[in-house]
Automatic annotation (TrEMBL):
Superkingdom classification of source: Bacteria
Chain positions found as 4-aspartylphosphate: 54
InterPro entries, sorted: CheY-like_superfamily, Homeodomain-like_sf, HTH_AraC, Sig_transdc_resp-reg_receiver
Species of provenance: Paenibacillus baimaensis
Name of the featured protein: Response regulator
Length: 508
């Protein structure tokens, strides 16, 4: 916590500085002021976390400085240090937002308690602001709102961003969900509380095209100091990626440049997701810049090759032998169209990806034709593994539902995709899940509906349409059956909670 001391008596400033230096904790003196005008300039430049200010000072008194300084730095907390115990002073100071009122001479214990109290209040407020910021950013990224629909007091138009796209690949890796279970990334997520107290926010967002976006944001007006914290945070993230990766899981991180506003943020997100598949030919367990991936994308045929490798990985995990076999043929056709000599430097990294993604070891010195034979033999194990296609049909159906739940899907449609009869798939689905296909689809839609209704500016009719229901009335009926209340009532409950949160923020 960065502290500014404002008092026209040098002995008082020396005494307060000495006491703070002897305290345990992360207290840092950001500057001293001898009058109200100097204090305002110091606040404008430093944006301190806490100000210790005297009531009686030249040019501007402490109360006047607090009033003007709170406009300059709304997130600064104020502690009055005065030789006057008049109740009217105390009352006015607390009315203007002072956290505490200390009488001179200040004891080290009273000062430390006041600083700790201010620190705790600031952290609580920042956590509430951070949660609200996260909700608004998720809504913006997923296209459920736009910048013009954000509340007037939203932080999003006033911050800079940086993006790290994180991908997980591996034969036993649940892509996307593993980000939430990673011990190192989980530790990083918890550490964000400390960063948010300094005005730096970090948000994990699962992306519809796969992977997760870790977005850091900081106030444009405090760019220099916050950017230092952001770089520390991203260094920690790189370490987490390196520690999490192992011989069975590949973790790839792609860093963007700074984004000066939310419109640039959305453009960079689209670019990073478009370049994401290139991780299959770029090397596993590494951190790359967006510029490096952009350069790689300019090489002819690499994007097509990367898409084939990722499709092989997905088919192997889903035990979809038919599509797997077709994709191996696509790989062979690709090799016939391109000179292997120009890709000799990439074959080792491709072998590493196939080893992790498919549990299949290939020799990087061999030709693509020999790779095709090895991949074909490896894929045939899916038929004789004891699980085969049949035992994974339900898992594939569930994956299909989670991808297409907003469309008008039926068991017949899914059965056609999987090349089985609808009756067989229906019986298998009910046996494994304990419910019918239709009820499962409805259940998923209701869960997704609750997530959308929790986002700012969500509308019941729009949510209904996004869930694939042409009739809002039918959607409302199903929602009540599953949740016990109507969507509008659910929204009211969320709005009441939001109001309570705002009131809590104001109280801090």
């Amino acid at each position: 916590m960065r502290i500014v001391i404002a008092d026209d008596e040098s002995l008082v400033r020396i005494s307060l500085t000495s006491m703070i230096a002897e305290m345990e904790g992360t207290w840092e003196l950001a500057g001293e002021a001898t009058n109200g005008a100097e204090l305002l300039e110091l606040i404008r430049r430093e944006k301190p976390d806490i100000v210790l200010v005297d009531i009686r000072m030249p040019l501007l008194n402490g109360l006047q400085a607090m009033e003007k300084g709170s406009i300059i730095s709304p997130n600064t907390y104020w502690i009055i240090v005065s030789g006057y115990s008049d109740f009217s002073y105390v009352q006015e100071a607390l009315k203007r937002g002072a956290v505490d009122y200390l009488l001179k001479p200040v004891s080290p214990q009273d000062l430390e308690e006041a600083l700790i109290k201010s620190s705790q209040e600031k952290q609580k407020r920042q956590l509430l602001l951070g949660k609200r910021f996260e909700n608004e950013l998720v809504s913006l990224v997923h296209g459920l709102t736009d910048v013009h629909m954000l509340p007037d007091d939203s932080m999003i138009p006033h911050v800079r961003f940086q993006i790290v796209m994180i991908y997980n690949d591996g034969s036993h890796c649940d892509v996307g969900k593993m980000v939430g279970r990673s011990p190192y990334l989980d530790k990083l997520r918890r550490s964000m509380d400390a960063y948010s107290a300094s005005g730096v926010y970090g948000v994990f967002i699962l992306m519809p095209m796969g992977g997760a976006a870790f977005i850091t944001a900081w106030n444009q007006a405090d760019h220099c100091r916050s950017n230092t914290l952001v770089q520390q945070l991203l260094t920690n993230l790189k370490e987490a990626v390196n520690q999490d990766g192992n011989n069975r899981i590949a973790i790839t991180a792609i860093f963007s440049e700074e984004c000066e506003n939310c419109n640039v943020l959305l453009e960079r997100l689209d670019e990073l997701q478009a370049w994401g598949p290139l991780r299959a030919v770029n090397g596993i367990n590494c951190c790359s810049s967006a510029a490096e991936l952009a350069k790689l994308s300019s090489k002819e045929g690499l994007e097509e090759l990367a898409a084939i490798l990722l499709r092989l990985n997905q088919c192997y995990k889903e035990k979809d032998y038919m599509t797997y076999a077709k994709t191996v043929i696509d790989l062979e056709r690709w090799s016939h169209k391109h000179e292997e000599s120009c890709l000799s430097t990439l074959k080792s990294t491709i072998c590493d990806f196939i080893d992790v993604g498919l549990d299949c070891k290939l020799d990087h010195t061999q030709t693509f034709s020999l790779w095709k034979d090895g991949l074909s033999r490896h894929g045939e194990q899916l038929l004789s593994s004891g699980e085969g296609i049949g035992c994974s049909l339900v898992d594939m159906s569930i994956a299909y539902i989670e991808q297409k739940y907003m469309q008008d899907i039926s068991i017949t449609q899914v059965a056609q995709e999987l090349n089985v009869t609808p009756n067989y798939l229906s019986t298998l689905f009910r046996k494994k899940t304990g419910t019918t296909f239709i009820k499962y689809v409805t259940h998923i839609r209701m869960l997704k509906s609750k997530e959308l209704l929790a986002l700012p500016n969500a509308q019941v009719q729009k949510v209904s349409e996004q869930m694939g229901y042409l009739s809002t009335r039918h959607f409302t009926k199903l929602f009540k059956e599953h949740t016990g209340c109507y969507p509008s009532d659910y929204r009211k409950q969320l709005m009441q909670q939001e109001t309570q949160t705002k009131e809590q923020i104001k109280s801090y």
